[in-house]
Structure formats: structure tokens, C-alpha cells
Amino acid sequence: MIALSFDIEEFDLPLEHGIDFPVERQMAVSRQGASYILDILARHGVKATFFSTVSFAEAAPGIISRLLADGHELASHGMQHSQFEITDLQRSRQRLSEIAGRDVIGYRQARMMKLDEAEIARAGYKYDSSLNPTFIPGRYMHLTTPRLHFWKDGVLQIPSAVTPLVRFPLFWISAHVLPQKLYRALVRHTLRHSPDFVTYFHPWEFYDLTSLDIKLPAIVRHNAGEGMRQRLDALIADLKGRGYQFATLSEVYQRYADK
User: Fold this and answer.
1) Is pTM, for the whole model, over 0.90?
2) What's the number of CA atoms in the CB half-sphere (13 Å) around residue 116?
3) Residue 136 has pLDDT above 90, yes or no
4) In the 8-state DSSP scheme, what is residue 147?
5) What is the DSSP code string of 210-244?
6) 39: Cβ–Cβ under 8 A, 6 or more apart, which residues?
């Protein structure tokens, strides 16, 4: 089962690199990128999960309305992307549920940072997809955590996909920099050893970043815009052509909750 997910948030990446970038422009980049994503998913008729910050959801009501109308899942990515308080867990779930008109049951912490699962359970979430079970210097050291889904404190943990054995991460950076045929081969190899394949992207990856008057790291700019739109389109077409099914993360959760 393929579970595509997208972290829809304010484009605050420039701030991490000391670049002043007004919030209005941050939202504009993410709105346009999210629109490209929704176009690609609609073309292929597949559903995905969108982890949204409350700040983005309130700044992009048209995007939220469209993704819900298209049958995608809305999940929580907190109140804001660059700030966090433990009360944000419940506050964001409540606000996004109000916006969606349905219960929000999934959570992903900004930048995939670790949180106490008991706090996530107390906030009312059913699943958490904040784990990248790999090693990335300065970011993640999760080589001893389970590679596949597991339960903790009553919450289903749904990790991002990594390859078996060496745990090479197959998230957005890999999709940017690896040759397409190699990336897709690694995805298929991982699926032969995993019941699900969960990966994540961001709207700004699909925006033409070279049009902005700011200097971002090469790894961020590499294949951004049209290049990533083509890559996502080709990835979905390849997997659908091989008979793989797509699902939202709430559907993945339900499959295991029913067992």
C-alpha cells in the first residue's frame, strides 16, 4: 500500500538560513505548490494525506476546501511550523477538525522532531507519523527504532519509509537527488519487505524556487519546480502501472486498528 503525504505549511525554510522572507510570500509559495500537487493527484485519481499547520490552513482556505472535496485526508502539523508548545497538539487538532468539519486523527511533528507519544495520545490522535527511522547527521538518530508500524501508548506509529537493512531514507530529499529509475527501484524493493510505503513532500518543492530573489542551498533547489512535478507524476504512474494501491494514512491506521 502506498501512502503519499504532504506537509503543507508556511514556507519558512529561508528563515532557517538567515534570509528574511515575509509570511505573506511564504504562504503564497506554499499555496501554489499545493495546487500543483493536487493537480497531479487528481490526474491520477489517487488519495493522499495532507499534514497542515493551522496557520497555513487559515491562510489557504481554498486549498483546504479543494483537498477535502477531492477526498484527501487532512491531518495536523501543529499550529505553526517554526514554533511549538505542548498545548499545540490539542489546539491544532481541534481547530483543524473545525475547519475540516470532521475529526482529525493524525499528527506529524514539524521537522519530524521527537515527542512523547503519551502527549500525542492525550491530545486525541489515533496515529503519529513523526518518525524517520534512519540516521541523518544533525537531524535523526533512529537506527534502533522499529522500521515498520508499531503501537505505543495507544497510538499507531507509522514511520516514513526506509530501505531494509541499511535504512536508506526514501523521503523528499531522495526523490530530489537520486536518478528517477534508482529511486523507483528502491521504492519497489522496500515494498517487497514492507506492508506499506509512506513518504512525504512539501509544497515548496513543486514551486519554481529559482524565480525567487533569494539564495537557497543547492539540495533544496535541485529539481525544484517542474522537475519535481515531473518526478511525482512519473512515480505515481509507475507504481499504478505495476498494480500498487494508494491510501490515506487514516486508511492505513484503520487497517491495523481493525485487527
Assistant:
1) yes
2) 7
3) no
4) S
5) GGSSS---HHHHTTTTHHHHHHHHHHHHHHHHTT-
6) none
